[in-house]
Amino acid sequence: MSGFRRHRRSGAAVATFTVHEADLLRSLAGQIIELLRSEEATPQAEDPLERMLDFSGPTTVPDDPVLARLFPSAYPDDEEAAGDFRRYTEATLRNGKAASAATVIDSLEDAGLPAEPEDGVFIDVELDPPTAMTWMRAFTDMRLAIATRLGVEEGDEERWAALPEDDPQAQVHDIYEWLGFLQETLVRSAA
User: Which InterPro entries does this entry report, sorted A to Z (predicted)?
Assistant: First the structure.
């Protein structure tokens, strides 16, 4: 397992993944997109100007805990202000997060990731600075999603270390840690 490094000549962030690692990243990015598209926004616009500008986003915190973590309330002490803020911003934020995840998928497939992974194949990814920033945002969303589903909390490393290797939660936590490693090496290589 290697992370990202800076290409000496181009300055791009580069990494080599096994086909299975690349396929896992594609799967995680696809799951983020699916999650972001799973809840439909309920149109709230009664005002003709708002209808014309399409301020029809949701006004309440999402039911799904991962979505609630990805889109926290901007004004937790003021429900009306929080609803208005969410209505005007959440659709754009969702689209941005989905686009970041789609960029990960596109980058991997452009680098040669086949539809059906085969053993012994490696995928070389080269990210220019804007694409590297997009991948960093996507890694953050993937990690937040996993951490929320697992219940990862600050200072609970002993809990995860104590789980047997074959425990499904331990295996997903390993993916969470791997994404953190990739994100850290990407940050260093893009700096």
Answer: AosR
